[in-house]
Request: fold
Amino acid sequence: MKSPLASLLTGAVVLGAATMASAHFQMIYTPEMALEQGGQIPIKLVFTHPFDAGYTMDMGTPEQFFVIRTRGENEPVRTNLKEELKAIEWASLTNTGKAWETMYQARGGDHIFCLIPEPYWEAQEDSYIKQNTKMIVNVGGEPGAWHEPVGLPTEIVPLAKPYDRWTGNVFQGQVLLNGEPVPNAEIEVEYLNHQPLLDSNSFAAEPAVTVPQESFAMQTIFADDNGVFTFGIPRAGWWGFAALDLEEDFTYNNQPCSHDAVIWIQAKDIN
Ligand SMILES: [Cu+2]
Reply:
């Protein structure tokens, strides 16, 4: 977090960034996080601007993509999925970007999907962006280890099940860097506002909601002294949380790199 003075000094830069309608978000998407039963589920990896289905960035080859399956007291089973990925093109409303897909055989319990992407060069910010991302699928309501850290370099550990939130509940998570809480971490929050169309690898043109003012497209919250953040969920659907720039002086190819952590939740209406 910048001090007010630092923000003043870098005002020009901040103003430039503020013209972006919404934030970069790494997605690991599948239609349903809370499945009744196992089976083949589609997984799409897309680096995009989910609120407005905006510019979709070209993903490189992921450094790692794996899933950890946990179920009751059973030992966690880690499966590498990187070799299963197939390259696709994902169409936003304004462009097409390189993305990835695979099919996965889900069984009972929690499946913690983890992506460590190749950093993305963001020329507008003279910086790389690396968003380590988690998305958790549960099958059959069987308990798993959704609340345990995986051990990613940057990670959001959920303090509430990401797949069992009603609309109106809160979601809490703890932001970690190398296993340690990140006090006052800045977190951007976005709603997946355009339905992903899996057959055509694109977003639906129609948004679910419209904003009263541009600030609402990408909400900003801060974690507390323990790296814990709280968000009240106003609407059913997918919400993404991106904790930004968690590691000071992190670099890639001798350039600055924002080392981020992303997690997704899927909320349902209570009725
Ligand atoms: Cu962006």
